[in-house]
Amino acid sequence: MALVIDLKPNEKILIGDAVITNDTQRTRLHISGNTPILREKDVMKEEEANTPCKTAYFFIQCMYMARNPRMYHEKYFETIKEIQHAVPRLSFFFLSINEKIIEGHYYKAMKEAKELIKLEEELITHATAE
């Protein structure tokens, strides 16, 4: 079954290590295969990874797009160790994310890490409001 993606005008998509930019019209793509695919809205640039949870997301994204995902495991696991030490209640989130990483389901892990980033933003907002 093919993945169907509707691209807005000028929207970018990463397919493998290629960046594809849509023209000025909406486009519908039907993509078959086993290549990593990321929409522009899901891509986090390294300089945007300015919090611990965003850094974890960035490393998962790197795993997803890499030919050798294991090269990012050490940095990722160091990052989450620091997060869990600082905020132990976040540990249960990482159980599920880590399970997906170990199984090679990096895109699913990214989706869960996005939820973790939202929680981190709430915690930061709450901490700075006090």
Structural notes for this entry:
The mean pLDDT is 93. Helix content is 49%, strand content 16%. The chain is an alpha+beta fold. Strands 3-2-5 form a 3-stranded antiparallel sheet, with no helix packed on it. It has a two-stranded antiparallel ribbon with strand order 1-4. It is globular, with a radius of gyration of 16 Å. Helix 1 packs antiparallel against helix 2 and helix 3 packs antiparallel against helix 4. The longest helix has 24 residues, at 106-129. The protein has helices at residues 52-65, 73-86, 91-102, 106-129; strands at residues 3-7, 12-15, 18-21, 27-31, 37-39. It folds into 2 domains: 3-41, no CATH class; 44-129. It is built from 4 helices and 5 strands, in the order βββββαααα.
Major sheet, described briefly? 3 strands, antiparallel
- Based on CA atoms alone, the radius of gyration comes out at 16 Å
- Give the rounded overall mean pLDDT: 93
Residue share in helix: 40-55%
Task: Provide the structure class.
Answer: alpha+beta
- Run of helices and strands: EEEEEHHHH
Distance between the termini: 50 Å
Q: Reading side by side through the largest sheet, how are the strands ordered?
A: 3-2-5
The structural domain count equals 2
Count of distinct strands: 5
Low-confidence stretches: none
